[in-house]
Amino acid sequence: MKKILVLFLALCLVAPAFAAEKKDPLAVWKPTFDPSGAEYTYILSNISHPVIEGVGFGYRLRDAVWEKSGGRLYVDFRPLAQLGGEKDVIAKLKLGAVQGMLSSSVAAANVSEKLGIVNLPYVIDTFEKLDQFRANSELWEEFANAPRSAGLFVADVTGYGPYGWATTTPVRNLSDATQVNFRIAEAPVNADLYKAWALKFTVMPWPDVPQALQTGVINGLDHAAIVCNITKKFTIAKYFTELNYAQGLFVHLVNKRWFDKLPADLQKILRDAIVEESAKTRELTKQQHHTQIAKAKEAGVEFIQLSAADKQQLIEQAAPVYAAWGKKIGTSYLQKVQATLGK
Question: pTM of the entire structure?
Answer without folding.
Answer: 0.90
